[in-house]
Every structure is written in C-alpha cells, then in structure tokens.
C-alpha cells in the first residue's frame, strides 16, 4: 500500500497504475450474503444446481454490484491519502465486462485519471479495474470520483 501525504500528491501520479490489491476469493457464501443484504436472489447467483445446468461456465456468478461494492475492501490496500475528510461523489462509466464465477479470485488496480479543485477541496477521478485471475478481460472497470479535503 502506498501512503500519500495529501490529495495533491495522489493527483501527481495521474496515469500511473497503482496496485494491485491482494487477491480476494469469490465464494458462494460471499455471493449469498450479498443476495441477503440486497434482496437479489436471481438464480444465476444463488442456485448452484441450476447454474450447473444453465449458466455459461456451469457455475453461479457474482452480482455485478457485489464486485463494485468490493472497492471498499480492496481500494484501501492500494493507497491511503492523508486527508481531513474524503467524500465519495460516485462513479461514472461503470462497466461489467466479464462474469466473475464462484471459485475465482479478483484483485484491484487503480489509476488516477484527472484532478481539479472543487468545493474547497481536490476532486480526483480514478479508474478502478478488477482483474480476474487467469482472465485477460477485466471483470469491471469504473471511474470513481472522490473529493479530498486537507
């Protein structure tokens, strides 16, 4: 993990790929817990028997939004910014590019794309990319928008 003294120091790394995070196992238990938390029990995620017969690859797959939510687990492994306050402004251009099957492992890379002063702080846009072990195509790519205050 990289530590940045402030958001300007992070912004100075624009274009530089940061990471990766540690690998994270995608288990059926993790998928089922997410389904319970969100109420999304679609069979392709939560029914291993049906998925074995009908799903591409013969396994359940993680919810796309489960993958997105794992940013909170994996991003802090990549870098930390010393700031008095950080506001998550959301994401743009979120794309789920490859299914994440049960039993796979994913990890995260981050790349600062741009920054600009905003609302008394520094707005930073960073691309997050989830890699699936053994796959050439990422699971998900999104632009994350954060507002940092020193």
Which short descriptors sum up this protein?
6 helices, six-stranded antiparallel beta sheet, 25% helix
Provide an overview of this structure.
Helices cover 25% and strands 39% of the residues. By secondary structure, the chain is of the alpha+beta class. A hairpin with a 7-residue loop joins strand 7 and strand 8. The chain is elongated. The two termini are 20 Å apart.
What's the structural blueprint in terms of helices and strands?
Elements: E1 2-4, H1 7-11, E2 17-18, E3 24-25, H2 28-38, H3 43-46, H4 48-54, H5 64-69, H6 71-74, E4 79-81, E5 85-96, E6 105-118, E7 121-132, E8 140-149
Parallel strand pairs: 1-4
Antiparallel strand pairs: 2-6, 3-6, 5-8, 6-7, 7-8
Brief summary of the model shown:
By secondary structure, the chain is α+β, with helices and mostly antiparallel strands.
Shape, principal axes of CA atoms: elongated
Helical segment count: 6
Oligomer: single chain
Provide the gyration radius in Å: 17 Å
What class do helices, strands and sheet pairing give? Answer: alpha+beta
Largest beta-sheet characterization: 6 strands, antiparallel
- Beta-strand content: 35-45%
Q: What series of H and E elements makes up the topology?
A: EHEEHHHHHEEEEE
What share of residues is helical? 10-25%
The overall pLDDT average reads: 97
Question: Which ranges are low-confidence, i.e. pLDDT below 50, for 5 or more consecutive residues?
Answer: none
C-alpha end-to-end distance: 20 Å
């Amino acid at each position: 993990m990289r530590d940045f003294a402030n958001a300007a120091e992070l912004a100075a790394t624009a274009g530089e790929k940061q990471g990766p995070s540690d690998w994270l196992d995608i288990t059926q238990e993790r998928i089922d817990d997410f389904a319970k938390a969100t109420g999304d029990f679609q069979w392709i995620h939560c029914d291993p028997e049906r998925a074995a017969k009908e799903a591409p690859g013969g396994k359940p797959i993680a919810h796309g939004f489960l993958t997105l939510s794992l940013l909170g687990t994996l991003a802090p492994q990549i870098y930390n910014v010393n700031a008095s306050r950080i506001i998550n402004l959301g994401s743009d251009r979120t794309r789920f590019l490859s299914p994440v099957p049960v039993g796979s492992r994913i990890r995260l890379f981050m790349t600062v794309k741009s920054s600009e002063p905003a609302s008394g702080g520094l707005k930073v846009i960073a691309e997050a990319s989830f890699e699936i072990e053994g796959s050439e195509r990422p699971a998900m790519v999104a632009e994350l928008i954060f507002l940092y205050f020193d």
